[in-house]
Amino acid sequence: MSEILFYLGAIMIIIGGICDLFGALGLLKFPNFYIRLHAATVGTIGGAVVPLFGVGFLALGADFLPHKYAIAGASFVTGIIVLLAAPAGAHALAYAAHKAKLVKWEPKVDHLAEVRRND
Amino acid sequence: MKRLIPLIIILIAIFGLAYYIAPKLPQQTELRPLGEFYLENSYFGDYSAKSPEVVTAILWDYRGVDTLFETSVFFLAIIGSLTLFRLNKKQEKEAKQKLEEFSGGLTLVIKDVTKVIVAMILAVSASIALHGHLTPGGGFQGGSALAVAPLLIIAAYSKYALEENGLDKTRALILRSIGLLGIVLVALVPLLSGGFIMQNQPIFPAEINGQLIGGSLIYYNFFEFLAVGAGFTAVFLLLAIPEKVFKKILGVRQ
Which residues of B touch A92 (CB under 8 A)? Predict the structure, then answer.
């Protein structure tokens, strides 16, 4: 059981590193604000939430660790908070940028057009 | 390519340090006398706080006056920012009035997520502060985490939502004063029973009903939690006054 948890946690941490790398590349290479926001969210969800859960699993699987339940619990709670907060934050940023007309863009579809018109 | 050369040198230096030099550094095998003294008098001894988080015990016990003055520096900073933003009664009323074009915060998604997260942040900050004598953390860190909750509410709902529900600047200042008063009273209690100022044991019990509460640490942590959280909240409430309103109050011409 502890070995399964160890490998699961280690794989999740590696996935987190890869997601962080891709998020950073995307932030550098993507053309405009909204798509870069997508890369940033990949960095927070894939690069922070997934490895936090991985750390939780690792801690649960480690028999030698004192206070392993405290460490696992803290990682899971932090992971859930980030999991809830990151999409809402990205949504808020995109909404605010759209409403304030700060970003120049040429959309194919604009589902939020009424927000701009109501201003 | 030229840029890569320093990077490669730095990487080689780091890996060289990690592989060849770090294992050869002499290891600390014995406890130093000072460390032994601190451990003996903050965890093991009869007159200690019996707190497994020795750092907190040292901070509030041996370096208690230092920590008290650190807290005072924080309070001076809060008072300084309140002085910068000082308003008379009429102006304060004006700052509390909603702007007419105010449409009521951000979208539904953000508001609902904020509701959930604020509850979680309150729980986490209370756990950081009230576990300060058992796990890393303590009053200041817990208070800083607590202050994030009103900040999120201000961002998602506006400051008027906080003020309509009763948490305005005056209340926050009262809470903060209660916190500081509590810290000072807990520091002065040992004087009454023949101890020294900010002494931990044996005036405060280390355990109540078998629960380890670490002597005076839990009281200090709780009051510091209250004071820091409320102080930050007061400053955030002032900073959230819309610029337009504040310029009108100051009489700046647009």
Answer: 106-107, 110, 155-156
